[in-house]
Design a protein that fits this description.
Helix 1 crosses helix 10. About 40% of the residues lie in helices and about 20% in strands. The chain has a 10-stranded mixed beta sheet with strand order 2-1-3-12-11-4-5-10-8-9, sandwiched between helices. Strand 11 and strand 12 form a beta hairpin. It starts with a strand and ends with a helix. It has 2 domains: about 190 residues, 3-Layer(aba) Sandwich (Isopropylmalate Dehydrogenase); about 170 residues, 3-Layer(aba) Sandwich (Isopropylmalate Dehydrogenase). It is built from 12 helices and 14 strands. The longest helix is centred in the first third of the chain and has 20 residues. It is of the alpha/beta class and about 350 residues long. The protein binds nicotinamide-adenine-dinucleotide. Nicotinamide-adenine-dinucleotide binds next to helix 4. The site of nicotinamide-adenine-dinucleotide has 21 residues, from helix 4.
Length: about 350
Amino acid sequence: MTKKIAVLPGDGIGVEIVAEAVKLLECLRRDFGLKIEMEQALVGGAAIDATGKPLPEQTLALARQADAVLLGAVGGPKWEALDISVRPEKGLLGLRKELNLFANLRPAILYPQLASASTLKPEVVAGLDIMIVRELTGDIYFGQPRGVRTLPNGEREGFNTMVYSEPEIERIGRVAFDIARKRNKKLCSVDKANVLECTELWREVMTRLAKDYPDVALTHMYVDNAAMQLVRAPKQFDVMVTGNIFGDILSDEASMLTGSIGMLPSASLDANGKGMYEPIHGSAPDIAGKNVANPLATLLSVAMMLRYTLHEAELAARVERAVSRVLDEGCRTADIYTDGMRKVGTREMGEAVLTALKQS
Ligand code: NAD
């Protein structure tokens, strides 16, 4: 059956990198029998400019109908002065919430060809392959009450609420245990159970779930220690599971172990395997429109879409092999460039992957 993909380029480099991903999907359809149809819509700042809203109803309706969503990135200085409730980022948070995309999968893989692009010593990061499973629809980002209020003495205070229900913890826990089962059967749950009651419950639920997964070794780590261990000895981790805010920070930290934020894809899944796929980086206004952005995180997001929503594991592996091949050939965008390599732009990198796809 033909699967529908909603394509939402968004803002800044989102437009450039998604264009390369669309070419990849078209190539997979034309030459490899992938049964898909694509439709584009506006989100983020581009949608604000056109409709006044970061997530227009039409875009949300398309995303709801689609089997998978491919997203570039949203945001930029042009919209920073707007009220927080109508900023481009609200479009993204709205999509995650409305589509119930509670499980964010962020692999941090260091391609051996890029070991020297990391700021850490090659021996610390060579062979790194971590999967961070971040809960995406709860926690302090969505908890109520929230706001800024004025106290009787005239001082203002800002407040947010960290909240997780037991079922919310259990469903993300099961996703993480299932993934750990398919990998090296090691799961590290990250919390701050020594200080925050909310994550004390998190730890209790993860420990209870572990009884259903006797083949997976569960460990617990406080988030401050996890942040430290990720730069000290990252290869000790295989799968990590954590809440929304800790996951936001740790996954960005993990991304830097791999040399560039431009290399890392992500998937956000609902309970039925529908997913939104996007690079972990933002709209990079500093390099937008210059044909220098690295499109590989987005192309690898297509590979995740093939694996997790379209159930085309062989095509997913083919895309990943093609990426590895272009790196072997020395193709590098500016963010991963090192001496002696061949510097290419966004479009050239996309084309190189398409050529390699046919040889992989
Ligand atoms: P960013 O990820 O856009 O950029 C951080 C740095 O990484 C910049 O120097 C940028 O040039 C570089 N970079 C990012 N992606 C790259 C790529 N593919 N190739 C090469 N270099 C790349 O983060 P920021 O600068 O903090 O945010 C810029 C805007 O993006 C803001 O409006 C922010 O709110 C938004 N944002 C959106 C998302 C999203 O849509 N998922 C995520 C993060 C930030």
